[in-house]
Amino acid sequence: MSTGTCTAFDVRELPHLFSRDPQRLALARNRQAALFRHQRPDAWPIHFSAPLTEAQKAIPAPNYKEAFYNADLMTCSEVRAACGVANARSDAVPSIRANMGTGTLLACVGLEQEIFPDKMPWLQCHLKKEQIARLTPDEIRIQGTFERGLGYMRRFREIMGDTLPVYCMDTQGPLDLAHLMMGDDLFYVLYDDPPFVHHLLNLCVELGIKTHTWMKEVTGEPLDRQHHGNNLYADNMGVRICEDTTAILGPDCIRDFAMPYTQKLAQHFGGAWMHYCGRNDHVTEGVCQVPEIRGINFGFIPGHEHDHVFEEDMQRCLKYGKVYIGGWPKRPGETGKDYLRRMHHWASQGCLLPHGNAALGGTDGLATVQEALDFWYALGA
């Protein structure tokens, strides 16, 4: 497959290859929405993905660079992944996005990412302190990669119609956006010039508000609702907020610079959920105390999957009324059924929306998604 072409595959076939059950999807949405509203669903929701059908395997799987430069190839890549989620017929709600990279929003202030075939785009240029000091919210505008991404989102809807929801491009929280905008010089000004940092973070809140609003105008999704991640749906929160940079800061910086601006962004969209990679209990505790944060998610670093203490984090979610979203690592020697029992103990208390694929396969796992779902629902509501 050559960059910029999709001649071997007709994208008009994608809606037919994406197999969905509208009634099952409506049930999944209702269960997830109830969970985030702290209401009791008819059954505790769980996410799974499943293998592609032979026909779906014909959907092109471009590399990152090919997809970045061609809307139809990007559509193929995203729909291919969504097919796996739809095939599972679990409580996951499939969705797709223009997968343009973590630095996409910075294009709105003139910064562009490097593009690679084998890894996600990455922002390697930044603004100087003097440039940021002069920057105003009025200078944030649709341009560059962000504009390309909006075009791809429109193309998704043209191809797929109402068959598959489109969710927002990769967005970061205010402090992550500040780090992307300024680079590692941010860590010096946190201590040397706090008033400047507050100016920068206010700009980044405005960047988050403007870009999310522009994207939701394309998707037609209300500001306070969201599909996300090819599995999530909620009707009482509109954005996801990343705190990856926040996770390498100390408690004073988290309190003074991260959480107030995270809360501002979440408030504008009727709530949010938070992700960060690694472990920083100060971040976790901080976001748990933000009322507008409905859920949390950790990215588990390979080799450090068990750094988080599962019971302690789940107890924290239960204490603060948060929902943990995503998969937890299976313990050594744990069977698939034992894993699901462990997840269900917390899910049935309304503080966990798990991804269950860790229960599948191997010598001690469940054989199929359907077998896992049957076991999960039999554990009771």
Detailed description of the structure:
This protein has 381 residues and is of the alpha/beta class. It has one domain: TIM Barrel, CATH 3.20.20.210. Helices cover 44% and strands 8% of the residues. The protein contains 14 helices and 9 strands. The chain has a 5-stranded parallel sheet, sandwiched between helices. A two-stranded antiparallel ribbon has the order 1-2. β3 and β4 form a beta hairpin. α4 packs across α6 and α9 runs parallel beside α10. The longest helix is centred in the middle third of the chain and has 26 residues. The chain is globular, with a radius of gyration of 21 Å. The termini are far apart.
Helix and strand layout, with pairings?
Layout: H1 14-17, H2 22-36, H3 64-68, H4 71-88, E1 113-114, E2 122-123, H5 129-134, H6 144-160, H7 174-182, H8 186-192, H9 194-219, E3 226-228, E4 232-234, E5 239-242, H10 251-268, E6 272-277, H11 281-288, E7 293-299, H12 310-320, E8 323-325, H13 336-347, E9 352-353, H14 369-378
Parallel strand pairs: 5-6, 6-7, 7-8, 8-9
Antiparallel strand pairs: 1-2, 3-4
Key traits:
381 residues, TIM Barrel, 5-stranded parallel beta sheet, disordered N terminus
Number of strands: 9
CATH topology: the name is: TIM Barrel
Following the backbone from N to C, one meets helices and strands in this order, namely HHHHEEHHHHHEEEHEHEHEHEH
Going by CATH, the architecture would be Alpha-Beta Barrel
Q: N- to C-terminal separation?
A: 48 Å
Helix content bin: 40-55%
Count every helix, treating DSSP H or I runs of 4 or more residues as helices: 14
Shape: globular
Name the poorly predicted regions. Answer: 1-5
Q: What order do the strands of the largest sheet run in, or round the barrel if closed?
A: 5-6-7-8-9
Largest sheet entry: 5 strands, parallel
Compute the average pLDDT: 96
β-sheet strand percentage: 5-15%
- Structural class comes to alpha/beta
